[in-house]
Amino acid sequence: MLTFLSSLIIGFFLAHFFIKQYSDYDGIKVSGIGDELFFVQYGVFSSVESMEENTISLQNYVYNIENNLYYVYVGITKDENNASKIVEYYKGLGYDTIIKKFNVVNKEFVKLLDNYDEVLKNTNDQTATISVINQVLIKYEEVVINGSQN
How far apart are CA 132 and CA 115, in angstroms? Predict the structure, then answer.
């Protein structure tokens, strides 16, 4: 009985330790399972200072830190055609971007993204396009990045 009880206590503390590591994570939260989303990447930078200098003209972005590099994303969508639309929008502004796929498990964000994707798909207005892009990035930061730390 003592062995069983000590195993439970040790297991609880180890689980708490591993979960705590992920709640302190500062970048884009992705997973191997979940909904596949298209992230439009603006660039990769070697330092936070370099990232901040090179993104000063952007209205909004999110970033991920991986292997001490800062990956900057300027758009998120579930629809590959919308991803291409976002790439074309930024190309028109003189920015080179690429599309990357990630799986995101946050169902609340994915559900919100459905609505934004529908609006983006049905508009050709540049003002509406950037408004939707910015709203998605803001919601991603609120719901996925900050929301999971509550």
Answer: 10
The pTM score is 0.75
- Measure the CA–CA gap between 139 and 87, rounded to whole angstroms: 20
Tens-place pLDDT, residues 36-81:
999 999 999 999 999 999 999 998 999 999 999 999 999 999 999 9
Phi-psi region of 102 (alpha: psi -120 to 50; beta: other; left: phi over 0): beta
DSSP 34: S
Q: Is 61 within 8 Å of 137 (Cβ atoms)?
A: yes
Residue for token digits 């200098």?
A: 53
The single residue listed with the structure tokens 């009985």 is 1
Counts for the chain of helices (H) and strands (E), in that order:
5, 4
| Residue recorded with tokens 């069983």 | 4
